[in-house]
Structure formats: C-alpha cells, structure tokens
C-alpha cells in the first residue's frame, strides 16, 4: 500500500471520517455555492440535517445538467484567484463540462493517483510510459501528477503516434504504462507487427481505464505486452482518474479511495440507495475537494460494491467493473441492452477477438442492431452461434457480421467509440 494508515484504516474510524468530511462539505457548499444552496432548499434540507451517513440520502443528487446549467464555474466554492487548473470533458453534445481545481484539489488528485499507480504495481524509480491524452482531458495530466507523487519517471508521450510509442518503449525501458484498454490492444498489435514479443520490451504493469473493458481484453493485453493489467476508474466531475484502482496481485475489483470519495449505489429508476453487492448507478461525493466539491454526483455508471473480504488488507470497498452507462443504454424493441452485455457474450464464447462494433439502424419503425465482430475463423456456424447466444443470454435478436482481423475501428489513443447510431441520420 502507498498509504497503509489510510488504505487499511479501521472501518469505524473511516465511517467517522467520512461523516465529518461530508458535514464540512455540505456546510461549505451551502455557504459558498448558491446553486447548491438552492438545491438544498428545494429538497427541504439544511446542512445540519446530515447527522449520520444514512441522512445523506435526503440530499439531492448532482447531475451533468447541473454542471451545464452553471457553466463554466458556477459550482465553485472558492474565489477565482484560488483556482490552479481547469479540465474539461468533451461530452457528446453542446458545451463541455468544466471542472476546476485549487491547490488542495491538485494535492488530493496526486495522492489518489499515486495510490492507484502503487496498487497497479508502480514503485518509485520506475519509468512510466503515459499514453493518456495530455490537455483538457484529465487522463494525461492526472496520471502525470500521481506518477510524480509516487516517484516515477514519467514519459509524457500522450495518445497517438503508435510507431513512435513502440520506439520509445524499446528505447526508454518503461516498466509501467497507462492508456485506454483499446489503445493497449493497438500497441500490442503494433508490437506483433514489428515481429517483437513481450520479452523484447521491459513493461511489467499496465493501468487501463477511461472506458469499459473485459477480462478477455485483459488477457489479450497481458499476453501481448507482457504485463499485469489493472483497472483504473474515475471521472472529471469527481476528480479524474484515480477514484479507484485494482491491486495488481489481486485483480478482483477496484479499491475505491473512500477517504476522499464517498460511494453510494442507487436504483437507476427510483434513486433509492441499494445495499452492497447490488448493481445500480454509482453516485459519488468528492468530500475533500475544495474548489468544486461535488455532492452525490450521478455518474451514470452501472456497477456494484463488492461485498466480503479482500486479499490485500485494505478496508476500503472495491467496485466491480463498469457494466455500462445508464446513458449507453440501447433500447432495442423494448429490451434494454448495454454494449458490454454483447461483449460479455462474445467473451463467454471464447472464439471472437475483443474487437467489436455495434451499428444501430432503423427501417420503418423497427430498430436493428448489427454486431460486427472480428474473427480469424469466418464461418456461418460461428455467426449463427453468436446470434443464438445473444438471443438466449441478452434476450434480443441481432444481426451478426464477421469481419477480418484489423478491419474494425481502433483506438487512436483516446476512448474508443463502440456504437454507431444511424437511427436519427435517416
Ligand atoms: O475518463 C478519467 C479517467 C482517465 C479514468 C484515465 C481512467 C483513466 P471522463 O473523460 O470524465 O474521465 O470520463 C468518465 O469514463 O463516467 C465512465 O463512464 C468512463 N470510465 C472511466 N474509467 C472507466 C473504467 C475519465 N475503468 C467516464 N471502466 C466515466 C469503465 C470508465 N468506464
């Protein structure tokens, strides 16, 4: 552990700390951020109503629309002169979501990312190949700050330029790499294309996140780059990368740094808080942020908190891999489908590669889903079996197209779009 006194804090102490921090946070917001004060008033609560962690459920959620409505900096609770960094996430439409950090926030960011990189296998003195995008996206600069806190030597290569990335990996001997899982697959393919094997490079650990991925991808990346791959999760609104990370020796869910981020899992329809173990929407409160702390942020990400003991001695809870986003949901002829459910079927069948793409079209009133899957073994039998398994396991009829390896879209360094929606284009 990077900070054993924190990561393995006795649970009663941790709960008391969380309550104190949440209380301080809602007071600050009430006093210094007018939009929160109005939201609290509309919900009929005051900061003094937060007497136990259970009382948190009486407080309103914050949603992406709250950030948009208060664009750019309406939710900040410190004077503008105290801000030290702005990040933004592009979003799919309209204005970007802007998030602001003061000195304290930069410090929290570096600490949680350092913990994450340590859990992922990083140790002081290692060379760190950082292929997350640098710039407004939180991925590059966020992991950079954490790498520095941990004592890594960072190569800030950013996304793209795959040939140059492979060359730098050969020349600078990094032991740890961070990038999106889809880009890690691209790097593994590029290595193979050069006739190289994992033994020819020095990498040992990969820290992958910013988009959903499966165990199949984990195995491909681990075999292709010769690494142990762990999942890093986070989002700009809450901080960026480093809300949670798996432990490389365990790889069973990501430790959520609960002394900074208070997690709840809620029912996507009713917003009711669900017990540990149940799947629902992850809601996060960034308790220790000061510039733009966010209360009960509705991430839209579907996951669960994993109940039971872990193998590392940490007391903080782990979250499972993200099953989908509530806004990625495809409603196909009345059936709810997440792209990751389709991927899970492919993974279960074992034959298809992790490269797939979903195309949505509409003929008349009917929506159709075409699942494109790369495979070496092009056969009508495999295609029919994929269609059948999806019907059985997910409950929808889809069309399946088998494609030759290398033909589907690849990550260009950033997040990979898995779904092309042509329904409204008509
Ligand atoms: O993607 C922060 C980040 C950078 C995380 C680098 C990990 C590594 P945003 O651009 O604001 O921030 O996007 C956040 O990406 O709500 C999830 O839907 C998705 N996401 C992030 N990490 C994971 C992950 C960064 N490990 C949104 N698994 C989140 C699945 C992820 N989805």
UniProtKB/TrEMBL annotation:
Signal peptide: none annotated. GO terms for molecular function: nucleotide binding; phenylacetate-CoA ligase activity. Pfam families: AMP-binding, AMP-binding_C_2. It catalyses: 2-phenylacetate + ATP + CoA = phenylacetyl-CoA + AMP + diphosphate. InterPro entries: AMP-bd_C_sf, AMP-dep_Lig_C, AMP-dep_synth/lig_dom, ANL_N_sf, PA_CoA_lig_proteobact_actino, PA_CoA_ligase. Pathway: Aromatic compound metabolism; phenylacetate degradation. Its EC number is 6.2.1.30. Residues 334-423 form the AMP-dependent ligase C-terminal domain. Residues 150-286 form the AMP-dependent synthetase/ligase domain. The keyword Ligase applies. It comes from the Bacteria. Keywords: Ligase, Nucleotide-binding, Plasmid. The keyword Signal does not apply. GO terms for biological process: phenylacetate catabolic process. Monomer. Catalyzes the activation of phenylacetic acid (PA) to phenylacetyl-CoA (PA-CoA). Belongs to the phenylacetyl-CoA ligase family. This is Phenylacetate-coenzyme A ligase. It comes from Deinococcus ficus.
